[in-house]
Design brief:
The protein is of the alpha+beta class and 173 residues long. The protein has one domain: Glutaredoxin. It is 24% helix and 31% strand. The chain contains four helices and eleven strands, in the order E-E-E-E-E-H-E-H-E-H-E-E-E-E-H. The strands form two sheets. It has a seven-stranded mixed beta sheet, covered by helices on one side. Strands 1-2-8-9 form a four-stranded antiparallel beta sheet. It starts with a strand and ends with a helix. The relative contact order is 0.24.
């Protein structure tokens, strides 16, 4: 298992990421997670669409809450060709409860808690706490990673403008 020590920090404390490191231009690895109804979902289920993945440590934390709400608001304005997935290690029941109370309707919450399939395939599993690193990934219709932001400090928000620019570039193609 590949490890990247000091890849991210949590409140300044260095943490290790586990799994294969991905880069812009790579073919997006497939993975299997579960939805809030406990059904398996694979990235390949969205073949031919633009997929935006926001990977967050936990929806029930302030920055993750803010980020997911922001992407939900932006997703309402995006083309129907775009699907936005929020992946965390939260249990599906907690995700369903949170999405209901936060009125999330344009982002699909998915759980990686069983196998860490997504976290390992994308090199985003935090070894010390078994959570996912905060990341935004944009995958084009051909399944290629076109944008990737691994947020160095987990308590920080991503660059929303850069992510939206990448999404809109994929839509325009």
């Amino acid at each position: 298992m590949r490890e990247r020590p000091n890849a991210v920090t949590m409140r300044g404390k260095p943490l290790t990421l586990v799994g294969r490191e991905i880069k812009v231009g790579d073919k997006a690895p497939d993975f299997e997670v579960i939805d809030t109804g406990l059904s398996p979902v694979k990235l390949s289920s969205y073949a031919g669409r633009i997929v935006v993945i926001i990977s967050v440590p936990s929806l029930d934390t302030p920055v993750c809450d803010l980020e997911t709400r922001k992407f939900n608001k932006e997703a309402a304005q995006l083309s129907e060709q775009v699907i936005v997935l929020a992946i965390s290690m939260d249990l599906p029941f907690a995700q369903k409860r949170w999405c209901g109370s936060a009125e999330i309707s344009h982002v699909t919450a998915l759980s990686d808690h069983r196998e860490a399939s997504f976290g390992l395939a994308y090199g985003l599993l935090i070894k010390e706490v078994r959570l996912l690193a905060r990341t935004v990934i944009v995958i084009d219709r051909g399944g290629v990673i076109r944008y990737l932001e691994l947020v160095k400090e987990i308590a920080s928000e991503p660059d929303y403008d850069a992510a939206l620019k990448a999404i809109n570039e994929c839509v325009a193609e």
